[in-house]
Amino acid sequence: MTANGRLALVAVALFAVGPVTIGPAGAAENGLIGKWHITEAVPGPWVRSKERNGLTEQGRKLVETEITFEDGAIVSKHQGLACKRALYQTGTYPTDALFRGSLPDGSQDRIAREFGLNRADVPSVDVDCAGGHFTYHFRDRNTALFAYDDVIYTLKRR
C-alpha cells in the first residue's frame, strides 16, 4: 500500500470514530485518582437478549467491589480490575465512541443520556495496563462508568 493509501485509511478511521481528544494524565489531572466502589452493573445494550440474564448475575458479583486508582497503579481485590503499571490518559469521547463504540448504531445519543452521560463530548480517562485497556466515562465528578466483559459498571467515589 502506498503512503497516500495509508493516510487515506487513517483519515477514514478517524472520521468514522469522530473527534476524540486524548492526552497523558498525571495524578493532578486524572479525575479517577482515589477510592471508588462499584454501585451498579447492567449488561451492555449491545448484548443479545439470551445472554442478558447471565451477564446480570455476573455483574452483581462485582457490586460493592472497591477500586483504588493510584498514580501508576490500580488496586482491587478483583484481579481483572487491578493493574501494577497503569498509564492514564484524559480526554473526551463523542457518544458514538463510548464503550469502545459498542453502543448500537443510531441509538448512541439516547443510550448515553439513559446512562446519565449528557454531554456531546463525555470526559473520560483511558487506562492502559498489561492486562488490558479500560475507559472510564464520567457522568459527573464522583460517578464514572466503564465496560468490562459486556457489563457496564457504575463507580461512585468513596
How would you sum up this structure, described in words?
It is a single chain. The chain is α+β, with helices and mostly antiparallel strands and 158 residues long. It has a single domain (20-157), classed as Lipocalin. The chain is 24% helix and 39% strand. It is built from 4 helices and 9 strands. It has helices at residues 3-17, 49-60, 98-101, 108-114; strands at 21-24, 34-43, 66-70, 73-76, 87-94, 121-129, 132-140, 143-148, 151-157. Strands 1-5-6-7-8-9-2-3-4 form a 9-stranded antiparallel sheet. The radius of gyration is 16 Å and the shape is globular. It starts with a helix and ends with a strand. Residues 1-23 have low confidence and may be disordered.
Quick synopsis:
The chain is an alpha+beta fold. It has helices at 3-17, 49-60, 98-101, 108-114, and strands spanning 21-24, 34-43, 66-70, 73-76, 87-94, 121-129, 132-140, 143-148, 151-157.
